[in-house]
Amino acid sequence: MCRYVLQVKNPEKQAEVLATYGVRSDSAAHMAADFDAVRAMRPGLGKAVMHVIIAFPAEEKGKVTDKMITNIVRDYLKEMEISSANTQWAAVRHTDKDHPHVHLLVNRVDLDGQTVSDSFCRSRSVDAAKKLEKAYGLVIADQVGQKQAREIGPTPAQIKAITPKEKQSADWSRARQRIGSALLPCKGVQGSFAELGEVLRPQGIGVELTQRKGGSRLGVVFVLDGQRVKGKQLGTEFTADKLQEGFDQVQVARRQEQQKAADQKAADQKAADQKAADQKAADQKAADQKAADQKAADLKAAADAYSLAKLGESYGQVRAKAQQHTKEQHRTPSRDLGIGD
Question: Does this model's pTM top 0.85?
Fold first, then answer.
């Protein structure tokens, strides 16, 4: 992948490295080695690199500068809840197509050794792209798709159709084809018919659920340009039951991801609580030691003061005795010897 994005085999295509974080870009070997060095913290992770192509319509070629694309890449990572300052990534622009596009490689192991989630990557990526289109005043991809569909013109079957029945059949076939193309990227992404409807609505496709008399779900019908196409007419994988099975799997995966996130949060909180408790114990130990040291210092000061007082008392007694002795010497009368003595 590193060799491909750097166009090692096709240097004439002039792959341009716009920005990287945590990896070298002077060679594919160095870039791969840097990715692998961090990936080694999660050796059991199967798909270790996320590869995303961020592309723009050809008419925006003069608008999207390298600086803008780099900013969009950083904002895209943020929308995908990937830290651009704690995860290795590389953005490389290719010039082999008329439309501007950049290849983004992201390590799925961040610099703390945590796994970067790729759950629901497709749907989250679509949501991120829509936000960035609005934020940067770019062409709206959904509108481009609808415009292109209108500009394609009638299909050969529609051109050949003469009778109302033939026209109806040709229109229905075209609607069926467009609906099928719109549904393919949605497989395994949405978690309900309501979510699927939200994704298809910008493309002019409606989703209707049919019911039995008792109220239970009977089937699903997709509506486009007045044409109604049943799910089973698109293929067994698009029947209501099969779609519901997919929704259930997505919901299970979401719950697992949520539980995983909750468990991680609980583990992080437990670790934080333990760290706080350890710090509190260390602070208490330090405080106790300080108190003990102060008590010892106070006792020493008291002992020194007592010793000094006793020394002063002894000195006073000695001095008093000396003074008393001196006084007694002065009071003793002197004897003068006479001639007859």
Answer: no
